[in-house]
Structures are given as C-alpha cells and as structure tokens.
Amino acid sequence: QVQLVESGGGLVQAGDSLRLSCAASGVTFSRYTMGWFRQAPGKEREFVAAISWNGHGTYYADSVKGRFTISRDNAKNMVYLQMNSLKPEDTAVYSCAGDKLQLRFGTRNEADFASWGQGTQVTVSS
Q1: Positive or negative torsion for Cα 94, 40, 18, 59
Q2: Whole-number Cα distances in Å, 121 to 1, 32, 37, 38, 92
Q3: Given this model, what pLDDT does residue 1 score?
Q4: How many Å separate Cα 78 from the centre of its chain?
Q5: Alpha carbon distance 99, 4 (integer Å)
Q6: Exposed, middle or buried, 35 (CB in 10 Å: 0-12/13-18/19+)?
Q7: Looking at beta carbons, which pairs linking 50-58 to residues 24 or more positions away fall under 8 Å?
Q8: Contact 113, 59 (CB under 8 A)
Q9: What is the pLDDT along the chain (126 residues), one digit of tens a residue?
Q10: For the chain, first and last CA: distance in Å?
Q11: CA–CA separation, 5 vs 14, rounded Å?
C-alpha cells in the first residue's frame, strides 16, 4: 500500500479556485490508479475523480466534470486536483486514494481503493 498526505485545502468563496495536492510514498506510485473522494458532513463519501497509472485515463463525477481536473506527476510521486468555479456544495473533506491493484487502467469504485490519506478540508462560502 501507498502512504498518502493531502494538502491545499482551505476556505474560499464561490467561484474561486483551489489546487489540492497529494504526496505519495512507500510503493511504486507510478503503477497505481489514483483517485480523489470527498465527504460532506452527514453524507456518504463520494467519488470525485480518478487517473490511471500512466495518466492516460481520467474519470470524473458528473457534479465536477468541466470544473475539476485531476493530474499526476509520476516523477514526483504527486497527484493533483485542480478545482475551478467552486460551489458551496463542493464543501467537504477531500481525500486522496490509491488503487488496490497495480496497472489497472482506471476505476471510480471506492471499494477498489485500499490506501487513503487523512483528508484536507475544503470550504466554499456563498
């Protein structure tokens, strides 16, 4: 499993942008699909975005498509989530996650992820 540490969260206004970062260590990062999930107060954790091990496949929840962009830098063991046009409903704790399996092309299924970061809070005020 990979160890993950998120950063970049904060308090912003609606329409603003934030870039979340996730630093990975412990395994060969470049062999794993990586994902971002979020959990708002009183709600279930939900899928946000995922990127395949080689960066060639990206997947997004409908609620963020066109506003969020996931990317990775395998040389730096980093995965990013660029969030634009933020809305109050984007308020949540955002967590980075690593796939259970190596070299899977991509997945948005939470059960496929075995490694989780501690999360970073994103709060969007109206």
Answers
A1: positive
A2: 24, 24, 12, 9, 6
A3: 65
A4: 11
A5: 12
A6: buried
A7: 50/106, 50/107, 50/108, 51/79, 51/106, 52/104, 52/105, 52/106, 53/99, 53/102, 53/103, 53/104, 53/105, 54/30, 56/105, 57/105, 57/106, 58/106
A8: no
A9: 679 999 999 999 999 999 999 999 987 889 999 999 999 999 999 999 999 999 999 999 999 999 999 999 999 999 999 999 999 999 999 999 999 999 888 899 999 999 899 999 999 999
A10: 38
A11: 26
Tokens 């409903």 -> residue: 89
75, 63, 82: which is closest to 21 by C-alpha?
A: 82
Number of C-beta neighbours around residue 119 at 10 A: 18
Q: Which amino acid is at 35?
A: G
Which residues have a Cβ under 8 Å from the Cβ of 42 and sit 6 or more positions away?
none
